[in-house]
Amino acid sequence: MNALIVEDVDNVAVATAAIADGENVHFVRHDGTESEFPCVGGVPIYHKVAVRDIEAGEDIVKYGEVIGRAAVDIACGSHVHTHNVQDLS
After folding, report:
1. Which residue, of 49, 61, 80, 88, is most buried by count of CB atoms within 10 Å of its CB?
2. pLDDT, tens digit, for every residue of 41-79?
3. Half-sphere exposure of 76 (CA within 13 A, CB side)
4. pTM of the full structure
5. What is the largest CA-CA distance in the chain?
6. Which residues pair with 14 in a beta bridge?
7. If pLDDT is split at 50, 70 and 90, which confidence band does 32 have?
8. Got the DSSP string for the chain?
């Protein structure tokens, strides 16, 4: 595993290691279900990665909390950070 998801409602996981472009993102949900999909563009260690497609304007949910809003459409496996997330203020 190279990513961590905390709550089932989360639409992002945290990379526990740097994930290269094309490398599989791999994590386990609380119910034991494993998820795996290719990383798009690479994700640095401890940064967020989309665990599903996120539409522009949709809330970004990490650790069960809304932390921002998607500024653009974000594809599953993509780095989620300040370049594609709006602050909630």
Report:
1. 49
2. 999 999 999 999 999 999 999 999 999 999 999 999 999
3. 11
4. 0.94
5. 36
6. 4, 48
7. confident
8. --EE--STT-SEEEESS-B-TTSEEEEE-TTS-EEEEE-BS-B-TT-EEESS-B-TTPEEEETTEEEEEESS-B-TTBEESTTTEE---
Instruction: Take residue 27 and report the two structure tokens written for it.
Output: 């994590």
Nearest one of 12, 37, 40, 41 to 26, comparing CA atoms: 37
CA 52 to chain centre: 8
CA–CA dist 74, 68 (Å, integer): 13
Q: Which of 88, 72, 78 is nearest to 11 (CA)?
A: 78
Q: Which amino acid makes up residue 56?
A: A
Q: Which tokens in the block code for residue 49? A: 């990665």
Residue located via tokens 């496996």: 77
Side chain identity at residue 79, one-letter code = H
Structure tokens at 78: 């993509």
